[in-house]
Amino acid sequence: ARREPWSLREGDFSKARKRLDPKPLSIERTKGSEILFGIAPCALALSQSRRDLFRLFLKQSSGSRRLVTSEFVLQATARGVPVHHVKRRELDALCRGRVHQGVCLEATPLRFKSLEEAEKPNLGDGENPNRQLIWLVLEQIQDPMNLGAVLRSAYFLGVDRVVTSQRNSCPLTPTVSKASSGAMEVFDIYSTDDLRSFLKAKTAEGWEVVGTVSKPEDVENVPVISCLEFRWNKPVIIVIGSEGDGLSLETQLLCHRMLAIPPGRALHPGIESLNVSVATGILLHSICSQKLRHSD
C-alpha cells in the first residue's frame, strides 16, 4: 500500500507540544499569605523581621545565576525559611505572570502603621524638635506602580515619614513592593482615616503644610509658587494628590502654599502635566536638597 508523505499542518506542532508539556505544578498557598516577587523585594523582606515568611521559591538555574541563588539560600536558611527550586512556569503561575526575576517569596502582607505609632518619638532615630523634618502625605494614590515609585523616591531622598489617606488608596501589595525596588520592605508607611484632622493638628503644632498642583490657574485662595522658589526652615508636610484629580478642594484649603513644577517649554494641550510619581520625585529632590545643605 502506498503511504502518503506526512506533513505538519500549521498549528499541529504547537498543539502537540502543549500535550507533551506538563502543566505547571499547582502550589497551595498558606492561608493569609501573599507572594512577593523580584530580587530586591524578596531579598529585603528576608533581611528584615517585618513579615512572617513561609517559603522561598527559586528558579532552577545554572551558570551566572547560581551566585544569586546561593545568596538567597543562605538568607533563607538563616531565617529558617524552606527553599523550593522550581521551574520558571511554576514561578510564573505563583506571581500571575509578573516579572519575578527567578525569585518568589511566600509571606504575610505588610500593613500600614497607625498615626499613633508615627507620633511616638523614636529615640534610636536621632530625631529632635529642632531638626528639619519632611513628611510626605498621599491623598488617594490608587495605582500600585505609582505608589511604589513614590515610596522609592521618598526613601532615597530622605523623607522622614510617608502617610496615606485610607479612603480610595492603594494597599501595600507585592506589586507596590516591586515598583519600590523593595523600599516598602524597609520603610514604614502610615495611614489615616481622617486626613483633614491630621493636617489641622500638624499645623497647630507649627508644621507648614504645602500642597502640589499641575495647573496653577486652577487654584484659588492659596498662594502658588514654583518649587524652585520654595524655602523652608521648619517642619514641612508635602501633600500629593491623586493621579486624575489632584488634591481635593478641602485639602487645598488646608495648605499654606501650593507648589508647581515649571515646564521647560510651551506645552501642547493634553500633555501639560507629569506622572504623579515623576512629579513627586522632582518636588522632593528640590525640597530635600535644602535639607541636606542645612545639615552640612
Verbal overview:
- There is one protein chain.
- With 296 residues, the chain is α/β, with parallel strands linked by helices.
- The protein is built from ten helices and twelve strands.
- It has helices at 12-20, 39-47, 65-79, 88-94, 115-119, 144-157, 174-179, 195-204, 249-252, 276-295; strands at residues 34-37, 53-59, 83-86, 103-107, 113-114, 134-138, 161-165, 189-192, 208-212, 224-226, 236-240, 257-260.
- It has an eight-stranded parallel beta sheet, sandwiched between helices.
- Strand 2 (53-59), helix 3 (65-79) and strand 3 (83-86) form a beta-alpha-beta unit.
- Helix 6 (144-157) runs parallel beside helix 10.
- The chain is elongated, with a radius of gyration of 24 Å.
- The model is unreliable at 1-8 and 121-127 (pLDDT under 50).
Blueprint of the fold:
Elements: H1 12-20, E1 34-37, H2 39-47, E2 53-59, H3 65-79, E3 83-86, H4 88-94, E4 103-107, E5 113-114, H5 115-119, E6 134-138, H6 144-157, E7 161-165, H7 174-179, E8 189-192, H8 195-204, E9 208-212, E10 224-226, E11 236-240, H9 249-252, E12 257-260, H10 276-295
Helix pairs in contact: 6-10
